[in-house]
Amino acid sequence: MVTEEGEEAKEVTSNLEKHLRFSGGTDSEDGPTEDARDRQFGNHLNSYYDRVVAVVRGADSIQIFGPGGTKGELRKRLEHEGLKGHVLAIETVDKITDRQIAARVRERFLI
Predict the structure, then answer these.
(1) Local structure of 41: helix, strand or coil
(2) For the range 89-93, what are the long-range contacts, defined as Cβ-Cβ under 8 Å and sequence gap of 24 or more?
């Protein structure tokens, strides 16, 4: 978070392993079906988004950084949670440091 008084980095980790797709959907001796894995992954992702929403709920403006499609999913979740007007920017980045995030936020919001 960046304010006129200073900045504070809050990291919300997903603890998700990369989601792999497997062909077939039948039970096997090796573990749960693909459908069960998909449900488990979806539940874990929803829990992660809930934690992110809890952290940013009080923010006036939200800028989202991240790789791939997760940014869009998070934006949709924030909109669903009543924060649609708060998301002002979405930026694709693979890796970014806390300092780089703070600099980009200050630049965008002229803090």
Answers:
(1) helix
(2) 89/63, 89/64, 90/63, 90/64, 91/63, 91/64, 91/65, 92/66, 92/67, 93/65, 93/66, 93/67
Q: Could you tell me which of 78, 86, 37 has the C-alpha nearest to residue 59? A: 86
Please report which confidence band the pLDDT of residue 105 belongs to, taking 50, 70 and 90 as the band edges.
confident
19 vs 97, higher pLDDT: 97
pLDDT digits (tens, 9 = 90+) for 43-68: 888 999 999 999 999 888 899 988 88
The tokens for 10 are: 């809050």
Q: Where are the alpha helices (DSSP H) in the chain?
A: 34-56, 70-80, 98-109
Rounded Cα distance between 48 and 54, Å, is 10
The residues spanned by each domain of the chain are 33-109
DSSP 3-state helix, strand, coil percentages of the chain (rounded to 5)? 45, 15, 40
Q: What is the pTM of this model?
A: 0.73
